Batch of 2 targets.
Target 1
Amino acid sequence: MDVKRILIIHGWGNERPIGHWHRLLATALRQQGHIVAYPQLPDTELPSLDKWLAVLKVELDMLKEAGDGELIVFAHSLGCLTWLHIAQSGILQEQASRVLLVAAADPELCGEVPSFQLDLDSPQVKAAAQSAALTTLLVGSDSDPWQPRGVEATFAKPLDLPFKVIVGAGHFAIEEGWTPWTGVIDWVNDASADLAAR
């Protein structure tokens, strides 16, 4: 097995609870022998982009120091906007191999955390999103309150990125039953895996 280096970026209000698909993903991948960074980001109820980027810069630097296996990034909700900021910030020392952005929060709904907002129609944002990884896949649902216009209109079209819609998935939250998620675990080792698999 090729050892991969994984970064998981949680979202707003997430304290890495027991049973969350992020936590189960981190545990499963560590058991498989992969190197996994899953940091608790600070002030999660009222986050600061600068503080989150400071933590994630160190995690990315340490993953770079850990070897040369494939770098894979998972982000959820506000974590997806955080990744787009990372892509523009200059703190990414290497291009990721694959990025999975799940239930990205519409920046227009993030007025309480203005430092995370960004203009998805900006050519600079699009260019950064394209260059930060060899492949970036957006995953959304048809029933996500944080994506009222849908993943295609909100993110996929302006950023020119591929997307997948999982029907009825809501915001991919633990309260909606997103606990074990077989598809994302399988996807790490096989990019053609069925992400809808539970």
Target 2
Amino acid sequence: MNVQLHNKKEAIFESTLHLIYEYGFRGTPMSQIANHANVATGTIYHYFASKDELILELFKYCREQTNEHIFSVDKNLPYKERFFFIWKRLVAYYLDHKEIFRFVEQFYSSPYFAIMQSSKDPSYYGVDKLHQFFEEGAKSGIIREMNFPTIVSVYIGPATSYIKNISYGFCKMTDSDRDNIIEIIWNGVKK
């Protein structure tokens, strides 16, 4: 894909994110996305057959951006340090990218999630990397063996709650608070 085409597609994604953050899925028509991205509506349909396809591809794009950020960890670090690093990077990324966080939250609560789930391709949204990471820890005897949904709930659930508390203005937390949360998670899963 040439740079100009890539930039148009990225502009469509960024505009869609912004508008969905402001107006939700239903309140964001394709014409408004085109106007905000400064492209013709036909250009959007060149890349995406429908709004549904745009939303599904935007989710993939968001997950790729997030995973690229959080999994940029030195694989030679001890497992515990990587466990902490990935979690803190996830929290920091979503706090810095509130539009992506809110989009992902809305996506999981929408019919789009069921459509995506039917594809049964975990690499589509990065679950495979997290799954492999937890398997590594369990096989090495560093963390307890747990089924994947359980450990994801223990690891990601507090991160999501923490991000919401800060994003929605319920509280302000410090780096020390963040350290305490991940330490509690670690103590719950380590062997």
